Predict the structure.
Amino acid sequence: MELQFLERNAPFEKARVCILPVPYAGTVCFRGGAENGPRAIMEGSLEVEEYDIDLGMETIGEAFPQGFHVMKPVKGGKRKPEDVVADVEAGVKKILDAGKFPITLGGEHSISSGAVAAIVKKYPSVSVLQIDAHADLRNEYQGSKYSHACAMRRIRDLVPRCAQVGVRSMSIECADYIRKRAKGTVWGSEFRNEDVLAALGDIVYITIDIDGFDPSEVPGVGTPCPGGISFRQGISLLKEVCKKKKVVGFDLVELAPIKGSVVSELFAANLMYKVAGYSLFPQKLK
Ligand SMILES: [Mn+2]
């Protein structure tokens, strides 16, 4: 089946939003399956209602009558993460050069630094909001600087201003890094929206590792971690960010579908549709 979001697939020229699927999970070290994330999210989207209660509109029907455009997926398989990251950067650059809004769908978290690399060239003052259970601040993991466990470290190399939310699992190296270099910009599952907003600049890119949310709500992730943020908490924060900042793109990574359950992909598809709508129509948010 051709990949599409919400039963539509606009041609590239006509779409305002473009989805870059990245079915890559080459550095995953625990539960696999993130390579199936993009397809599962798009198939799950077929069950999402087009009317968004928060925006009071059928976002995809009114604003994007032909839908979002799904780009040709980045090649996954057993490639080196840095090669995949380079392809992600090229894909997101193509979307940005055409003046469109990029959504990158993982795949594992290592791919996000490619999207950020393209974003930072277009928006040099961008800041990054990460939702994630894991700090992902290792400089190197299992011989690679581009492992999923280094995702946020690579992003912080590119972007000095970041906020990390939902973080409740880290190595001692990550804890040291936060103490020395990221003080006051990392929160667990208890946080105040205003504090997170204050840590960010006016222009924001969002990287969402689905495991930042509680596994009781979204169990289909590679490394579930108890005590995560709720969907409601996440939506409340994301709404505020979209209302008060300019959101220039986002990614959604680490969904690893569970056979026989559609809970996780529907969670991800709903989240993705909402964040796209909030990012492009913040004035419609109450
Ligand atoms: Mn992560």
The chain has a mean pLDDT of 96.
